[in-house]
């Protein structure tokens, strides 16, 4: 085992931004532990997949245990798993509320706490939380209260954790995307969604992976909420 080869954990990694993130890390010779409820086994010996709900403490523990037993370290955690439910506020059900908070906040809590404990032992590490620019710039016609409630919490936690761990060699940042071309957006909606961004286009998954990779290499950056949203958070 090359203990100097960096190791990243990516949640929500079976498709979309998460899957692209796994590829981006592998392209840079990181070993990766990838998690989602439905993730399939990997044929790449440097990618471990752990299936399960990240809101389950036992799943988060299994991810960390696998990273340490197989790769010997944890350098980066990308909290990408998330649920977005677009409903008017009064239409949310109790189940919607529980599901969104479970993945967006409880999942973040479990895996971040366990990974941070190992990063502290190393004296180094980096956490990147995937947020949304809807927190800063709500859009008429895109109901997003639960997303703003949970991802806004992640933004606040990002800054708080960055300060708490700054002197322990651990950085914490967030990437705040606009609307990204991914399997969750049908192609026939792309024209309308592109118009929600001042630059006139949706984001590509590479826009987000590039931002995460930048933050991972930016040793003097911590507590940052990096907006990658085509100007959406700046205004219209």
From TrEMBL:
Enzyme Commission number(s) from the entry: 1.1.1.-
Transmembrane segments: none
SUPFAM superfamilies the record matches: NAD(P)-binding Rossmann-fold domains
Keywords for this protein: Oxidoreductase
Top enzyme class: oxidoreductase
GO terms of molecular function: oxidoreductase activity
InterPro entries hit by this protein: NAD(P)-bd_dom_sf, SDR_fam
Family from the record: Belongs to the short-chain dehydrogenases/reductases (SDR) family.
PANTHER family (alphabetical): OXIDOREDUCTASE, SHORT-CHAIN DEHYDROGENASE/REDUCTASE FAMILY (AFU_ORTHOLOGUE AFUA_5G02870), SHORT-CHAIN DEHYDROGENASE_REDUCTASE FAMILY PROTEIN
Protein name: SDR family NAD(P)-dependent oxidoreductase
Source organism (scientific name): Dyella halodurans
């Amino acid at each position: 085992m090359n203990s100097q080869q960096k190791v990243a954990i990516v949640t929500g990694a079976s498709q979309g931004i998460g899957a692209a993130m796994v590829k981006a890390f592998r392209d840079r010779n990181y070993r990766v532990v990838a998690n989602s409820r439905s993730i399939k086994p990997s044929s790449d010996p440097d990618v471990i997949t752990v299936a399960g709900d990240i809101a389950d403490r036992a799943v988060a523990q299994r991810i960390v245990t696998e990273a340490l037993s197989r790769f010997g370290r944890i350098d980066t955690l990308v909290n990408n798993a998330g649920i977005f439910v677009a409903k008017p506020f009064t239409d949310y059900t109790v189940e919607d509320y529980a599901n969104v908070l479970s993945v967006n906040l409880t999942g973040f809590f479990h895996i971040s706490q366990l990974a941070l404990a190992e990063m502290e032992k190393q004296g180094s590490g980096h956490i990147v939380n995937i947020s949304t620019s809807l927190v800063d710039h709500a859009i008429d016609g895109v109901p997003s209260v639960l997303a703003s409630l949970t991802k806004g919490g992640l933004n606040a936690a990002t800054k708080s954790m960055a300060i708490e761990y700054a002197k322990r060699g651990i950085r914490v940042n967030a990437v705040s995307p606009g609307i990204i071309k991914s399997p969750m957006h049908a192609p026939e909606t792309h024209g309308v969604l592109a118009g929600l961004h001042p630059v006139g286009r949706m984001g590509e998954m590479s826009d987000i992976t590039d931002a995460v990779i930048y933050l991972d290499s930016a040793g003097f950056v911590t507590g940052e909420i990096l907006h990658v949203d085509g100007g959406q958070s700046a205004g219209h």
